[in-house]
Amino acid sequence: MTSKKKINKKDIAKLLSEWSQEFTVFVPWRDEGVAKWAKWDGKDASFLDWYRNTIVPPKAIFLPPVEGMFSFQKGKEGYHIELPPSDRRKELIFGIRPCDAKALAILDMIFSDTYEDPYYLARRKNGVLVGLGCVNPYDSCFCTSLGSSPTDSTNVDLMLTDVGDELLVEVITDKGKELMTKTSLAQAATQADEARARGEREVAYNKVTRQLDTKDIEKKLLANFDNKDYWEKIAAKCISCGICTFLCPTCYCFDINDELIKNQGERFKSWDSCAFPLYTKMPMENPRAEKWRRLRQKVCHKYEFYPINFDVIACTGCGRCIRLCPVNWDITQTLDSLPTKEKVKLEK
Amino acid sequence: MAVSDISHRLRFLAEGNAYLPHIAVIEKIIDETYDVRTFHFNCKDEKLREEFTFESGQFALVSVLGIGEAPFSISSSPTRRDHLECSIRQVGRLTRALHRLGEGAEIGFRGPYGNSFPLDFLEGKNLVFVGGGIGLAPLRSLIWNVVDNRDRYQNIDIIYGARSSTDLCFRYDLEAWGKDKTIDMVTTVDKGDEVWTGRVGLVPVVLEQAAPSASNAVAIVCGPPIMIRFTLPVLEKLGFTPEQMLTTLEKRMKCGVGKCGRCNIGNLYVCRDGPVFSYAQIKGFISSEY
Amino acid sequence: MKDEGMESKLRSEAKALLEQGKVDYIIGFEDGSLKFTTTPLMTSDKDDTSRLVINPFIVNNLSVFLTEVMGRVGIVAKGCDSRSIVSLVQDNKVAREDVVILGVPCLGIIDLGKVEELVGKGRDEIEDIIRDGDRVVIMASGNKREFPTREVLFDNCLSCELPTPQEYDILLGEPTSLADDRERAASQKKIDSLRDMTPEQRWEFWTSEFDRCIRCYACRNVCPACFCQQCFVEETEPQWLSPLPRWQDNLMFQVVRIIHVAGRCTDCGECERACPVNIPLRSLTRGMYDIVDVLFHYRAGMDKEAPPLLATYEATDAEDFIR
C-alpha cells in the first residue's frame, strides 16, 4: 500500500472533470449551510476549503431516502408488474471519509446476506469510492475506538491523504488502479512526501480525543438487557425523532409503502427508524411502545446484535448522532455508564 | 456470517428479486368469524402453480397492490397442494382491502419465507398443540401435515380456545379432529354464552387441567402474545424443557427477508430465523421484547 | 446569564423540592457532552441536582417533557418555556398544581451557528465564549474577538416578548427587560423578506427548502404543542399524506402541523433549531403566530385562565373571510 503518486489540490477540479467523462461524480456540497453529498457542478473544488464531514452521510447515495422498488398497473387481464430500469450509471464518490466508507462495508453485509437486496448492491457494484483522510476531526468523532482511524484506507478504492498543498494518492483496489489510468494529473511522490503523509496521519489520529471502551461491550449489554431502571434513565431525554438513525451512516432500517392512483402505482422503500413509536406496532399491541425499549433496541442492535450476526459493531464513530441530536443524547456516555456489577434489577 | 445458513430457501423468487411479488388469484373465500376470513388461492402462473411448495410454519407476504403488504402464515398443509390458504383478520387498512376482494381477484404474493416446524425433531414423539384464536392458522398447517403422515407420530393432543364462541376459527377442522379417534381434541372459550355448550376456561388454565405428559413430548404453541406468555410457564410446570416447547411468533414485518430491521428479537429476525422458535432460543428476550 | 447566583439558588431550591417531597422529578439542564452545549437533566435523585446549570446555552424547551413524565415535576423554565407550560395548562394536558416552575429570567440564548459563522470556526475549534452584558467575547486560536451580544443570539430571542416568566413558583433571579423595537425588526428579517416575495417566488423557495426535509420529525417531537398520541401523519384510515420524504408531502406535513399548533405555538424556535437540514421553520411558525395575533389579538401562553384559542368562539372574531 505504498503511495506512489500525488496530485496538487489546484488540479482537483481538472481531475474531477476527467473522471466525469465516465462517472457521475459526487462531492461534498453545502445546500443552505447543510453539508451533504451532491453531484459535482463541474466548476471547482472549493469544497475542500470547508469540508470536515457532511451532515447527511454518503449512504444516501446508495440507500436513498426514497426509492421505487417496482411499479404496477391493473389492466383487463389483471396486474402487470415492472421493475424500474436498471441503473447502469457509474458513480464516483469523491472525498468519502474513512468512517463513512467503513459504514458502507458494514451495510454490505446485511444487504448481501442470503436474500440479496438488488437495489443497494447494484449501486455499490457500480460505485467507486475515493477516500480522503481527515485532518480536522470533530470533538464528537470516536472512530479510533472502533478499529478505524481518520486516515484508514481499508474500505475505499483510492485513498487520498492531505499534506497541505497536495494530496497523496494510494491505490487500494483494482477499481482504484483503473481510475488512475484515466488521468495524467498525478505526479510521482517522493520519499519525503510519503514521510509527510505518515506524519499527517499520526497527527490526525491523535486529534481524535473522544474514546469509547468497547471491550466486552456485547456481554455488558446482554447482562443489562432487563435493567429497566438503567434504560429508562438513559432514554428519559430522548424525543424519539429520527435524526440519529437517519443521519447515521450504518443505520439501514427501511419501510415499504405502496402508492396508488387509479389503476397505477408503485411500491417504495424509504428510511425508517427504530426510534419511532410505530416502528414495531401491530394491530393488537406494540412491543416497543415505551421509549426505553426503543432506545435499548437501538443501542443493542449496533453494539450487540449486529456483532453477533456479522462480527462487527454497527457503528463507525462518525459522531453525527452526538453532534446533531436536539437533546445532546450521547451514545458514548450511555455505553460508558453501563453497570457492570452482577446485581442488576431485573424487569418484572 | 448471520445466524443460520438459509441459502436453501432461495426458491420461487420473482426475477431473482426477493421483494418482487408474484400474482395469485383468489379461488374461494370462507368466513371463519365476523372478522376472520380464509382465502383459498393459487399462483396465476401455471408453471409456478405446479412447482410451488412450502413447509408447515412458513409464511407469505400478501399484498393488495397499491394498498400495502403484510405477512400471513400459510395455513394449508404442504401435503394438500391443490391450493394455498391464508386466514386473515380484519384489523386495518390492508386487511380491510383484502376482505373487500371477491373470488377471482388478484393479489400480490411472495414467499414462502421463514423457517418451518422441524418435522424430524417431532417424528416419533407425542405432540401437544396449544392454539388461541386465529393462532390456530399456522398450527393447522402442521396438524394436517402430521395427520396426513399419522404413523410417523405418537399421541396428538390439541387444546384450542378463543375469546368467545363467535371467535372460534376453523370449525370444520375442529369437528374433523374431534371425530378422529387418534386425536385428543379439547375446544374451550374464555367466556361462555347461551349458545356454547362446551368447555369454558382460558387456554393456559385448560392446558394445566388437561396436564398432558411431558415424556417424549413436544408442545407447539401459537396464539396472541398474552396467551403465549401464560402458556409457556404452565408447560414448564408440567415438566416440558425449553427445548420441548416450540412456538411461532408474530411481529410487524415489511421486507420478510431479514433486512428492514423491525421484526427482530435480540439478534434473531422473526422473518428469517423464525417464525418457528423453541423457547430455549428466545427465553432471554421473551418477557422484554414480546 | 452565567450567573453563579442563579445557578446556586437553582441547585439548592431543586434539592429542597426533592428532599421535602414536593416534587417527584426535577427537569433542568446540565452540561452537555460537547463544548458549549447543555442537555436536559431529568432526575428524582436529590444528589443529581448539584449538576444543574444556568448559562447562555440552555436552549431546550423542557416543557416538551411534561406530557410524558408522570407525577409532580419541578421544571426549569425560561420566559418562552413558561409560556409553553401555561399553554399546556390551558389545554388541560398538565395540571398547574403538578408543576413547580423554577423561573429563569433570560437574557437570550446564544446561537452557536451564528458564532461559527462570525468567527469562521467550528464549535469545537472555539476556546471560549464569554457573555458580558451586551458584549460577547469569543476566543479562538489564541485570538480574542468581541461582538455585540445580539449578533449571536437566536433570532426569536431578539424579539422575545417575555424574557422573565410571568407564571412561576420560584424566580431564580432579577427580572430582565424586553427587547426593543429595533431588535424585533432584526428577528423578522428573514420572515419579512419572504413576505416581500411574489407568490411564485415564495413557492419556489419553499418547495426547494422542503426538498431537503428527511421527515425525521424532530420539529414535531421537540415541540411542546405537538402532544398528540397519534399524529395525523401516522393515520392510515384515511391516509392523509404519504410518509415518503418528497417535497410535496414534506411541505404538506409542515403546513398542517403549523395549523394544528396555531394559538398554542409560543415561537420558542425549537423546531428550527432542531432541524438537521436547516429548514427555516420559524419563518412559517412565526408567520402563523403573527396571523393569530392579528386575527384574534391573542398570544399563546400569556394567561393560564384563558380558554384555548381555537376551542372558543367570540362574537368579535374576524369574519371578513366569509364572503
In terms of quaternary structure, the protein is: heterotrimer
What's the number of helices of chain C?
11
Helix count of chain A? 13
**SSE order of chain A, as H and E?**
EHEEHHEEEHHEEEHEHHHHEEHHH
Described by the principal axes of the CA atoms, the overall outline of chain A is globular
Shape of chain C: globular
- Adjacency order of strands in the biggest sheet of chain A: 3-2-6-7-8-9-1-10
The largest sheet of chain C is: 5 strands, mixed
Please tell me how large the radius of gyration of chain C is. Answer: 20 Å
Could you describe the largest sheet of chain A, including whether it forms a barrel? 8 strands, mixed
Strand adjacency order, main sheet of chain C: 2-1-3-4-8
Kindly give the count of domains of chain C. 2
The count of domains of chain A is: 2
Give the % helix of chain C. 25-40%
Q: If you average the pLDDT of chain A, what whole number results? A: 93
- Number of E-state strands of chain C: 8
Low-confidence stretches of chain C: none
Mean pLDDT of chain C: 92
For the termini of chain C, the CA-CA separation is 51 Å
Order of helices and strands of chain C: HEEEHEHEEEHEHHHHHHH
Share in β-strands of chain C: 5-15%
Structure commentary:
The complex is a heterotrimer of chains A (348), B (290) and C (323). Chain A is an alpha+beta fold and 348 residues long. Chain A folds into two domains: 5-207, no CATH class; 217-336, no CATH class. Chain A has 13 helices and twelve strands. Chain A has an eight-stranded mixed β-sheet. In chain A, strands 5-4-12-11 form a four-stranded antiparallel β-sheet, with no helix packed on it. In chain A, helix 8 (217-223) crosses helix 11 (291-310) and helix 9 packs across helix 11. Chain A is globular. Chain B has helices spanning 46-51, 93-99, 119-122, 136-147, 171-179, 203-210, 225-237, 279-289, and strands spanning 22-31, 36-43, 59-64, 68-73, 84-89, 106-113, 126-132, 156-162, 183-189, 199-200, 217-222, 245-248, 264-265, 268-269, 276-278. The longest helix of chain B is centred in the last third of the chain and has 13 residues, at 225-237. Chain B has two domains: 7-113, Translation factors (Elongation Factor Tu (Ef-tu), domain 3); 119-248, Nucleotide-binding domain of ferredoxin-NADP reductase (FNR) module (Rossmann fold, 3-Layer(aba) Sandwich). The model of chain B has no long low-confidence stretch (mean pLDDT 93). By secondary structure, chain B is an alpha/beta fold. Chain B starts with 21 loop residues before the first strand and ends with a helix. Chain C has 323 residues and is an alpha/beta fold. Chain C has two domains: 4-111 and 153-311, no CATH class; 112-152, Roll (Nuclear Transport Factor 2, Chain: A), CATH 3.10.450. Helices cover 32% and strands 14% of the residues of chain C. Chain C is built from eleven helices and eight strands. Chain C has helices at residues 4-19, 79-90, 112-119, 155-158, 181-187, 189-195, 199-210, 218-221, 247-260, 270-274, 282-296; strands at 25-31, 38-43, 73-77, 99-103, 126-132, 135-140, 143-148, 170-171. In chain C, the strands form two sheets. Chain C has a five-stranded mixed β-sheet with strand order 2-1-3-4-8. A three-stranded antiparallel β-sheet of chain C has the order 5-6-7, with helices on one face. In chain C, helix 7 packs across helix 9 (247-260). The mean pLDDT of chain C is 92. At the A-B interface, strand 4, strand 5, strand 11 and helix 11 of A face helix 8 of B.
